[in-house]
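ok posting inputs for the N-carbamoyl-L-aspartate job
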Amino acid sequence: MKHLIDPTDLTLNEIDDILALAERIISDRPAYAEVAKGKKLATLFFEPSTRTRLSFEAAMLELGGSVIGFSSADSSSTAKGESVADTARTVEKYADIIAMRHPKEGAPLVASMNVDIPVINAGDGGHLHPTQTLTDLLTIKETTGRLSDLTIGFCGDLKFGRTVHSLIKQLSRYENIRFILISPQELQIPDYIKDEVLIKQHKDFREVERMEEVIGELDILYMTRVQKERFFNEADYIRLKDSYILDMEKLKNAKQDLKILHPLPRVNEISVEVDKDPRALYFAQAEYGKFVRMALMMRLLHLAEPQGKGEGTC
Ligand code: NCD
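and the output
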């Protein structure tokens, strides 16, 4: 494992190892406070972000390393016309690892092909978001105790939602996962995910339009916002933006141990009244994101675990 561009760049063993390391970090944070001393993370964010960028930065700081970077394309030389490859080649001279978010699908892959330091895809257009997938896996594992035998409902913008594409791709690698895809017709999952992942791998999935029809079957409900910035036309966004609003009324028929996930940011697809329900896990999920990114960066940088922890590096 040199870079993380697609969730399937990691074997299932590597994923288990990263999740186990994240669990060890959670149980003894002070022990990991200096493992990345002298290392620098560059966060190259050509698109807005709160959780992903700040959790990467917090993760590196919590490991004792430091952070450089930018948080918008306007404040980098992209505004002058520089290519992604040249930006990456330059940053390689200043940092030990790169986390890149870009509106164009494939941009982090291009960066990774041009440098010798690890590149992490922190979200590329409507394509993939592998570190959110690791976050989601850690949240599911910590709260249900398993990554198999689950019925998961994905609800909202399944067309443009990269976190959904990434998590479906990844969960398809585990045993006995049932996928229920809840979206309006216009926002259904792209054909390449349906054909190449769900159909080709004979996964149990179905597409529905009404959340109420299926909510009682779910172990996990993965809510998403309608991705305004990826619409070509404002009128379509306005028509579709309020397609689903999860509230306490809809939760009446849900399982008592349902887990409600959301990569955030939320717009209005989960009513704030749901936040105090113990099934609402989205803010805990954001915290798991920091720990899993600590674990991932330790592995990509081949950092040794503190004495007495784990089995060493992979
Ligand atoms: C997601 C993203 O950027 O794709 N956010 C995140 O990274 N937590 C989801 C979104 O923006 O809707």
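notes: The mean pLDDT is 96. The first strand starts at residue 40 and ends at 45.
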